[in-house]
């Protein structure tokens, strides 16, 4: 069956009331997205930020009479007129299969491939990372993850102790293991991310003890050879003492999830204890990396 999709442009203070009323009026689902390309810092567990310019999308049955529903919504919210909005017919699709069909094997650097677990590998002799991201961030398709994977592919990782901070799907930590790292510690605020990392570790036929997974408050003291953190600029500023403390002298750090204009501030912060290299750039995003002074 087809659906009707109501898209309406609102501000953060309007979200709760619009969502409440639309669900009460029969919406099957309500989703939110950014309509101005505004980056958000990774939130703490007790805080959910929203974009200044938010687009709300509500999904209704195809036979819903939208004109009286919109009038009822306007009246219930007490507005003279609703914010800018439009109603569209949305064809029925299996959206999971639609996304899966567009996730293709991709090479990063000289030897590393990230391959959807449901598709054949293009080069059996390469380093093939089999991935099913589940509910966690990280497939390699975003420039921030791609920058990290390309950088890892060129690093000497044999026998190294690595920390993947903000591990998401586990893609970076598992890539490090497949490229020769001895052991990885994965850290993430989201328990679903830790579950996805564990599943992908098993999917790549790696030993369960090759990657230890922790919530931030449970992370043990470490003296790692390499820390990689693909998060966002705000948390990376706040995490400087933490990430610095996880590395031994001479250890390497790589930071991603950073917009070009955010790089100078982070370079200044991390240069206090790291010899930082020139950034690597991909579109609007950069990777910062360096070595801890001893």
TrEMBL record:
Catalytic activity: L-lysyl-[protein] + 3 S-adenosyl-L-methionine = N(6),N(6),N(6)-trimethyl-L-lysyl-[protein] + 3 S-adenosyl-L-homocysteine + 3 H(+)
Entry annotated with the keyword Methyltransferase: yes
Main localization (coarse): cytoplasm
Superkingdom per UniProt: Bacteria
Annotated compartments: Cytoplasm
Positions of S-adenosyl-L-methionine binding: 145, 166, 188, 230
Pfam families (alphabetical): PrmA (PF06325)
One MF term in the entry's GO annotations: protein-lysine N-methyltransferase activity
Record keywords: Cytoplasm, Methyltransferase, Ribonucleoprotein, Ribosomal protein, S-adenosyl-L-methionine, Transferase
Signal peptide: none
GO cellular component: cytosol; ribosome
EC number: 2.1.1.-
Gene Ontology process terms (BP): methylation
Family: Belongs to the methyltransferase superfamily. PrmA family.
Known function: Methylates ribosomal protein L11.
Designated name of the protein: Ribosomal protein L11 methyltransferase
Name of the gene this protein is made from: prmA
């Amino acid at each position: 069956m087809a659906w009707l999709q109501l898209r309406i442009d609102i501000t953060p203070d309007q979200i709760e009331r619009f969502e409440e009323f639309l669900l009460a009026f029969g919406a099957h689902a309500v989703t939110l997205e950014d309509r101005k390309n505004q980056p958000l810092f990774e939130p703490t567990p007790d805080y959910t930020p929203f974009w200044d310019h938010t687009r709300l999308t509500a999904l209704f049955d195809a036979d819903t009479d939208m004109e009286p529903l919109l009038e009822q919504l306007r009246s219930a919210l007490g507005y003279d007129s609703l914010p800018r909005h439009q109603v569209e017919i949305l064809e029925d699709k299996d959206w999971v299969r639609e996304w899966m069909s567009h996730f293709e094997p991709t090479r990063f650097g000289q030897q590393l491939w990230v391959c959807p677990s449901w598709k054949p590998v293009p080069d059996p002799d390469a380093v093939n990372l089999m991935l099913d991201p589940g509910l966690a961030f990280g497939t390699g398709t975003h420039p921030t993850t791609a920058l990290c994977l390309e950088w890892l592919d060129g690093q000497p990782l044999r026998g190294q102790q690595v920390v993947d901070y903000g591990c998401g799907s586990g893609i970076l930590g598992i890539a490090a293991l497949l490229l020769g790292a001895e052991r990885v510690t994965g850290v993430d605020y989201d328990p679903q991310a830790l579950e996805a990392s564990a599943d992908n570790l098993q999917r790549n036929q790696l030993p369960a003890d090759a990657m230890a997974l922790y919530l931030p408050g449970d992370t043990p003291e470490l003296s790692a050879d390499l820390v990689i953190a693909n998060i966002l600029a705000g948390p990376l500023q706040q995490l400087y003492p933490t990430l610095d403390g996880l590395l031994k002298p001479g250890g390497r750090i790589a930071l991603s999830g950073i917009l070009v204009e955010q790089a100078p501030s982070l370079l200044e912060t991390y240069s206090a204890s790291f010899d930082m290299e020139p950034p690597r750039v991909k579109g609007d995003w950069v990777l910062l990396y360096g070595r801890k002074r001893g």
